[in-house]
Amino acid sequence: MPKVNVYLPDGLADRVREAKLPISRICQIALTQALESASGPTGATSPTATAVPGPTEPTDLTPPPNHHVALILRQARSAAADRGAAEVDTADVLNALLDEGESVALTTVERLGFPRDDIRRALARAAAAHRADAVAPAAGPPRLSAGTRTALATGAAQATEHGSDVTTASHLLLGLIRDAGPAGEAMRRSGVADTVTPAVLSALYFGVSFGRIRLERDTEEAWLRTALTEITTRLGRIERGLPH
After folding, report:
1. What is the pLDDT of residues 67-100, one digit of tens each?
2. Which residues are CB-contacts of 177 (< 8 A; sequence separation ≥ 6)?
3. Of 46, 186, 57, which is closest to residue 114 (Cα–Cα)?
């Protein structure tokens, strides 16, 4: 994915770093809404309805993964290929989530008292144990393991309960917490599973959704103010050109 630099005043940059905000995700949402509003107001839309590229392997998820989850799955598959594995296991997926680092869900988990480094260490131990009897590498790119598909299905089921049109990182996180494989073991070892319950993840999802709806409304109102100013200016020019 192309990288774009964002420059901030020193004071604002310090506040953003202190709050551990997901800069990339926030910028993607804001820029998408700005581009859509540039051609006119779009009206009320789903807070997660932005078209996104799919993962490298079809997951048959309903609802489909959003941009963030699709990126995590691509990174997980690359990691599995790098280690010569035949399958993408849940440890690959959780590692990708930890490495990518821009997830609101992950930031929330850290703020609840579970640093990603602690989760990473627990995951390393769990992955080593679960991969001890791993099957030999197969020809071709690695495929999603049965455990990974189950975790994704668990997340998609919660997305459906939420009425979401995409499976988000908070939904994926539930699937990883409930995983019977290495990711789930790491979540239990690190204590995440005891605190980050389905109710917590639901609250996180609806909180983020509300914030995105507000962002859409603010963007549309800004477009409307700009459009009205331009119309007023043009009318003033026309009026000055008419004979009195």
Report:
1. 889 989 999 999 999 989 999 999 999 999 998 7
2. 183, 184, 187, 192, 193, 196
3. 186
* pLDDT per position as a tens digit, 174-190: 999 999 999 999 999 99
Which tokens in the block code for residue 216?
A: 């859409």
Residues ≥6 apart with Cβ < 8 Å to 104: 22, 25, 169, 170, 204, 208
Name every residue whose Cβ is closer than 8 Å to that of residue 182 and which is 6 or more positions away in sequence: 89, 90, 91, 94, 123, 126, 127, 129, 130, 131
Specify whether the CB–CB gap between 66 and 123 falls below 8 A: no
With left for phi above 0 and alpha for psi between -120 and 50, is residue 164 left, alpha or beta?
Answer: beta
Task: Report yes or no: 95 and 121 within 8 Å, Cβ to Cβ.
Answer: no
Q: Which positions ≥6 away from 96 have C-beta within 8 Å?
A: 72, 73, 75, 76, 79
Closest C-alpha to 140, from 231, 56, 203, 24: 56
What's the half-sphere exposure (Cβ side, CA atoms, 13 Å) at 105? 30
Sign of CA dihedral 159, 163, 164, 170: negative
Residue 48 banded pLDDT, cuts 50, 70, 90: very low
Q: Quote the CA–CA distance of 202 and 148 in Å, as a whole number.
A: 21
For the whole model, what pTM was predicted? 0.65
Q: Which residue has the tokens 């020019």?
A: 237
Whose CA is closest to 147, among 93, 103, 199?
Answer: 93
